[in-house]
Amino acid sequence: MVFSGLAEKLQETFKKLRGKGRLTEEDVDQALKEVRRALIGADVNFLVVKDFIARIRERAVGIDVLQSLTPAQQVIKIVHDELTSLMGGTRSKIELAPSPPTVVMMVGLHGAGKTTTTAKLANHMRRQGRRPLLVACDIYRPAAIKQLQVLGGQLDVPVFNMGDSVAPPDIARAAVEKARREGNDLVIIDTAGRLHIDEELMTELHNIVETVGPNEILLVVDSMTGQDAVNVAKTFNERLSLTGVVLTKLDGDTRGGAALSVKAVTGCPIKFVGMGEKLDALEDFHPDRMADRILGMGDMLTLIEKAQANFDQEQVEKLNKRIRSMEFTLDDFVQQLNQVKKMGPIDQILGMIPGLGGVKKLKDLEVDDKDLVFVEAIINSMTPWERQHPQEINGSRRRRIARGSGTSVQEVNRLLKQFEQTRKMMRQLMEMEKSAKKGKKGL
Ligand code: GDP
């Protein structure tokens, strides 16, 4: 889960603060010491940490002004604000060209996830109504053209290539002309990578930039490489004037240092984050929501957006009504499970729910999506009446359901209990959704 180590440490620190009615200077000093250690431990650039702590200390001095928050809440709010501004403050979007097509050039080292991200971005932007054309400009690795074609095929997005004997700037120019002719309003160029930054690569990328004048030059970096990712970003930016960074593999066991340092070190905003290998695992990067996640306030807004992107709206409306009226049944439960499965790995989703991200054991929790198969089997073995009246399912019915679904009575019991808890949790989520919309900054 994103930043799990850092999040855990910061949340422990703040828990200690929360227990105190008044904060002495010593308390604040101690907390800041712990914050510093947590950030360094998360591989955040040393100078960035130093600056960060100094800013918080400065703001924490005149603290008892805001009447509505306790001193501890104020320190947390300051850390939240500063984390947000460290990561860029506000969300940075793709700059669309005044007259289409918008040209986005993807650059990065081998293995960072450039080709995958190229396809993910096409998918992401298509959901916003764009008509993308992908362009294969990595002519050195024969498999690269094929890889892009396969990904484009999966998405049903056209892929332009001219084989491996035309110079990349010429391929890029021809692609932009084709897009203009054929009404593609977004051109995403996949370029060559290298194991390390070298002069030849930089010259070639520079030539593409000169030829097509891209609206965006996005650097794809692997967040698992920590400070290396930040150094790579610095060098690329010096040569190519990047417009943004995409951090990939944030779903992995990354300590988070790259995400927290890139903007401060390079001045380039993070525009997107890769949260998995699948083609829908690209998220807009919202600094404030990431700060929410790090501080264990969950990220209800991303969760709600994910739900909106994946859920069938009509079903959501129906489901909402049923939850509100507490008519939510096991039939709805199965339907909802199927929808949730589409949203991505369960542990990622849980991490976005306020409070749950900070549950210590969550990062070790391996939620096996296959378990859901048994859940469905159990529910399918119930009669329609039972599904509508789960509280009435007695012992003999439970035995019959277990037999029918190839499970045990204990498993049936567990499911019914989970269902009850889910009903409760859904009611709480509805409340939180309401207050998230009202003003989520209330800490
Ligand atoms: P390229 O050499 O930069 O073009 O890298 P690729 O696009 O071929 O990706 C390298 C590997 O990283 C592939 O196995 C991808 O599936 C994987 N990958 C890319 N983005 C992500 C991500 O956000 N999360 C995870 N877990 N894997 C990713």
TrEMBL record:
It is found in: Cytoplasm. Keywords: Cytoplasm, GTP-binding, Hydrolase, Nucleotide-binding, Ribonucleoprotein, RNA-binding, Signal recognition particle. The keyword Hydrolase applies. Residues 269-282 form the SRP54-type proteins GTP-binding domain. Its EC number is 3.6.5.4. Pfam families: SRP54 (PF00448), SRP54_N (PF02881), SRP_SPB (PF02978). Its main location: cytoplasm. InterPro entries: AAA+_ATPase, P-loop_NTPase, Signal_recog_part_SRP54_M_sf, Signal_recog_particl_SRP54_hlx, Signal_recog_particle_SRP54_M, SRP, SRP54, SRP54_GTPase_dom. It catalyses: GTP + H2O = GDP + phosphate + H(+). It is an enzyme of class 3 (hydrolase). One of its GO terms (cellular component) is signal recognition particle. GTP binds at residues 108-115, 190-194, 248-251. Gene3D superfamilies: P-loop containing nucleotide triphosphate hydrolases, Signal recognition particle SRP54, nucleotide-binding domain, Signal recognition particle, SRP54 subunit, M-domain. One of its GO terms (molecular function) is 7S RNA binding. One of its GO terms (biological process) is SRP-dependent cotranslational protein targeting to membrane. SUPFAM superfamilies: P-loop containing nucleoside triphosphate hydrolases (SSF52540), Signal peptide-binding domain (SSF47446). PROSITE patterns: SRP54 (PS00300). Belongs to the GTP-binding SRP family. SRP54 subfamily. Composed of three domains: the N-terminal N domain, which is responsible for interactions with the ribosome, the central G domain, which binds GTP, and the C-terminal M domain, which binds the RNA and the signal sequence of the RNC. NCBIfam families: ffh (TIGR00959). Involved in targeting and insertion of nascent membrane proteins into the cytoplasmic membrane. Binds to the hydrophobic signal sequence of the ribosome-nascent chain (RNC) as it emerges from the ribosomes. The SRP-RNC complex is then targeted to the cytoplasmic membrane where it interacts with the SRP receptor FtsY. Part of the signal recognition particle protein translocation system, which is composed of SRP and FtsY. PANTHER family: SIGNAL RECOGNITION PARTICLE 54K PROTEIN SRP54, SIGNAL RECOGNITION PARTICLE SUBUNIT SRP54. This is Signal recognition particle protein. It comes from Desulfoscipio gibsoniae DSM 7213.
